């Protein structure tokens, strides 16, 4: 949609505002061109900053269309009119990622932002989702300045269409503003390798040196991670930092090295207002507007609390700004015509939030299962891996209809599905390097979603580890080769995906492929969580096995890491073949786990393994782990929002099991992966010889896992709605043993009438 749908009056008003800015004495030249500040400007000694955009290319909140950009902007305009000497700053990630971003490549947001007239916007990484050429076109079409101080062309010039910094006249004051992007641009965008990314201190010092002689106040419109703000604040002359790359919502602004730092989330949930005494540079007032929808509140939910600093705003009482509404509605109507129809019905809730970093989700399992069915290859695709950051809507869906727009919002990037041939050793390496270990702001995370593979992961003391890796129900062979489906973003940034080992370019972007496959092949879906990524925080050695009637009792000592056990979480995992849930657990100095003897023997028979893992939850002893925050205070565990406990594992020997129950004392299991690891962990499918395993801080999400995730789940799946015990993958040996590829998908998700036995290519 390139046509300007605004009225002539609206366009004329925008032009008048720009002309007024040009006549207002804004500094021109090396410092750029700024816009006019607050409408109620007057010399009362104060300066007000209204901040945060971070729209991700959306015109509406992903989970609630009533919370939209037209109402957001109406609130911004109220703040601008109520407070003298007001400037409005954004902090980037405005053009993408979203289905609108993918469809219109940011053109829609430039049109809306031109109407909103921010004084400056700090460019974020998602401005570059479609390459620097498209980004530059959008920057150059903008009637407001984009600023980013640390990105330069190979010739040392600012990114075309941007400025490193600029000045804005706000009443009688001149405000300098510079942008700052993460130094990880090469890894998370299509930023060319020969373009420059400067360090934070170097870029901030250059900005202050240029701005300080011309300005009364200096602001960083930030798109860096929260922890980097200390580095920027340490540069003398930076008065305020607004926004971030981290989606953090502060309870109140912080003061670091005399610099005020405010982070109030992203998209449409919050708007920040900071009022400063210009002479002293000190923060005199602040406000966080908390946007909510009264009609979306449950019976037991209340509106956000109103205090001196928190102002709840019910969108039902906010009239949409008509000029922004016209723009948004035009694009949304266009999108609805193309993508608004249901493509499939989901019987369970699908979690497409940032929980995908922390836990296995039903959505992650669904999409990676489908990724293994791309193309018409002669050989079955063994494994699929998906980066959690590529799952982006931040919302949950269903039970009910899933529309094309929903799928495209979940997978908004132009990422092509590609297939590589990896050795077992390379696959293990990729899984291990994907783990984000403690210490970390969000706890340890596996940070990916997978299909066709099961493994245990550990993330403590700054090191990620994996062990007991199984592919297709068989222990990983480090020397064998496997076909692995992923997206080109992952492949281009992972050392294991070597260009010479690529075997297939699908030509399919993930969003359209998943959407069209679901539409063509399935009437209903009900993806379940399984034991694909098993969190292990503590390894317990010296477990003993005793037989009592029809039960096996596994006993082991409680370690110093364990404050108490979480009794309803213990199960024996047979990768690819289901689990055996514990019938009872007792915890004390000695932990005793009772399992059905026949089911345990059947698990060993099905897998052919020499050893299997008994896994279960425990309340961690935070002092044992000893993680401290920046103030030297002990971090209470677990950190992850998706967990309310840690997990331990002990190894159960098939030989011991058979000897105890009086059965065959041999096993034909192939412990081929037993010696492939150089991390000291035991072999996959074999007994764990690693007594110093340390463990990770992420738990497997098996439905009994507990934990209140950030999506408001009841602990069963972080928002995916799967149940335990009576669904495939959770009862004893109830997995899809011996079923793979298209037949597996058919049995798992159910093809529509007349469809082929699987999710084929478009």
UniProtKB/TrEMBL annotation:
Organism the protein comes from: Halorubrum tebenquichense DSM 14210
Bias (Gly residues): 682-698, 704-716
Gene3D superfamilies registered for this protein in UniProt: 3.60.21.10, 5'-Nucleotidase, C-terminal domain (3.90.780.10)
Lineage: Archaea, Methanobacteriati, Methanobacteriota, Stenosarchaea group, Halobacteria
Domain of life: Archaea
Protein name: 5'-nucleotidase
Any GO BP: nucleotide catabolic process
Chain intervals for the UniProt region annotation (Disordered): 293-319, 654-737
5'-Nucleotidase C-terminal domain: residues covered: 355-497
Alphabetized GO MF terms: hydrolase activity
Biased composition range(s): Acidic residues: 293-303, 665-681
PROSITE patterns in UniProt: TAT (PS51318)
């Amino acid at each position: 949609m390139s046509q300007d749908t605004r009225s002539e009056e609206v366009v004329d008003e925008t032009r008048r505002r720009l002309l007024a800015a040009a006549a207002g004495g804004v500094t021109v030249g090396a410092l750029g061109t700024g816009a006019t500040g607050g409408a109620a400007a007057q010399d009362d000694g104060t300066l007000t900053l209204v901040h945060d955009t971070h729209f991700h290319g959306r015109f509406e909140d992903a989970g609630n269309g009533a919370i939209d950009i037209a109402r957001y902007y109406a609130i911004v305009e109220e703040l601008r009119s109520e407070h003298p000497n007001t400037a409005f700053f954004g902090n980037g990630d405005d053009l993408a990622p979203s289905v609108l971003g993918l469809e219109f490549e940011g053109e829609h947001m430039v049109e809306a932002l031109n109407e909103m007239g921010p004084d400056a916007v700090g460019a974020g990484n998602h401005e570059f989702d479609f390459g620097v050429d498209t980004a530059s076109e959008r920057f150059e079409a903008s009637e407001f300045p984009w600023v980013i101080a640390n990105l330069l062309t190979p010739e040392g010039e600012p990114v075309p269409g941007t400025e490193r910094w600029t000045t804005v006249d706000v009443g009688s004051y001149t405000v300098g503003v510079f942008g700052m992007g993460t130094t990880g641009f090469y890894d998370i965008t299509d930023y060319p390798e020969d373009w420059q990314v400067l360090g934070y201190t170097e870029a901030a010092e250059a900005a202050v040196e240029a701005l300080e002689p011309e300005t009364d106040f200096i602001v960083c419109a930030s798109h860096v991670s929260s922890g980097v703000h200390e580095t920027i604040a340490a540069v003398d002359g930076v008065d305020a930092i607004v926004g971030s790359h981290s989606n953090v919502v502060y309870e109140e602004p912080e003061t670091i090295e005399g610099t005020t730092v405010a982070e109030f989330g992203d998209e449409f949930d919050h708007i920040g207002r900071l009022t400063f005494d210009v002479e002293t540079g000190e923060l005199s007032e602040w406000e966080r507007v908390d946007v909510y929808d009264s009609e979306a509140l449950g019976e037991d939910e209340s509106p956000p609390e109103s205090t001196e600093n928190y102002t709840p705003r019910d969108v039902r009482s906010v009239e949409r700004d008509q000029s922004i509404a016209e723009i948004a509605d035009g694009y949304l109507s266009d999108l609805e015509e193309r993508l608004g129809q249901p493509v499939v019905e989901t019987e369970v809730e699908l979690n497409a939030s940032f929980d995908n970093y922390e836990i296995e989700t039903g959505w992650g399992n669904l999409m990676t299962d489908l990724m293994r069915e791309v193309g018409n290859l002669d050989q079955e695709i063994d494994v699929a891996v998906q980066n959690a950051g590529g799952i982006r809507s931040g919302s949950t869906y269903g039970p009910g209809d899933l529309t094309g727009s929903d799928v495209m919002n979940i997978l908004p990037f132009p990422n092509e599905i590609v297939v590589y041939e990896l050795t077992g050793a390379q696959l293990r390496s990729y899984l291990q390097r994907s783990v984000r270990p403690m210490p970390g702001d969000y706890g340890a995370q596996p940070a990916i979603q997978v299909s066709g593979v099961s493994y245990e992961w550990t993330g403590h003391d700054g090191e990620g580890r994996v062990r007991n890796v199984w592919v297709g129900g068989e222990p990983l062979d480090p020397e064998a080769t496997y076909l692995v489906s992923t997206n080109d973003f992952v492949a281009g940034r992972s050392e294991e995906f070597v260009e010479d080992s690529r075997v297939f370019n699908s030509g399919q972007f993930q969003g359209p492929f998943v959407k069209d496959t679901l539409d063509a092949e399935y009437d209903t879906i009900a993806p379940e969580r399984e034991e694909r990524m098993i969190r292990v925080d503590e390894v317990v050695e010296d477990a003993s096995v005793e037989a009592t009637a029809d039960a096996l009792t596994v006993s082991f000592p409680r370690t110093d890491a364990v404050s108490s056990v979480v009794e309803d979480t213990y199960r024996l995992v047979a990768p690819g073949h289901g689990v055996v849930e514990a019938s009872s657990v007792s915890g004390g100095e000695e932990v005793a786990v009772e399992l059905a003897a026949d089911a345990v023997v059947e698990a060993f028979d099905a897998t052919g393994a020499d050893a299997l893992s008994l896994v279960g939850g425990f309340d961690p002893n935070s002092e044992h782990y000893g993680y401290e925050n920046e103030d030297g205070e002990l971090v209470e565990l677990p950190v992850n929002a998706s967990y309310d406990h840690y997990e331990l594992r002990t190894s159960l020997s098939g030989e011991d099991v058979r000897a105890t129950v009086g059965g065959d004392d041999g096993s034909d299991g192939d412990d081929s992966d037993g010696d492939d690891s150089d991390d000291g962990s035991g072999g996959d499918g074999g007994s764990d010889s690693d007594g110093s395993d340390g463990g990770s801080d992420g738990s497997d999400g098996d439905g009994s896992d507990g934990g209140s995730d950030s999506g408001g789940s009841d602990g069963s799946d972080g928002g995916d709605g799967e149940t335990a015990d009576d669904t495939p993958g959770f009862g004893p040996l109830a997995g899809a043993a011996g079923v793979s590829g298209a037949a597996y998908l058919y049995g798992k998700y159910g093809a529509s009438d007349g469809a082929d036995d699987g999710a084929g290519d478009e």
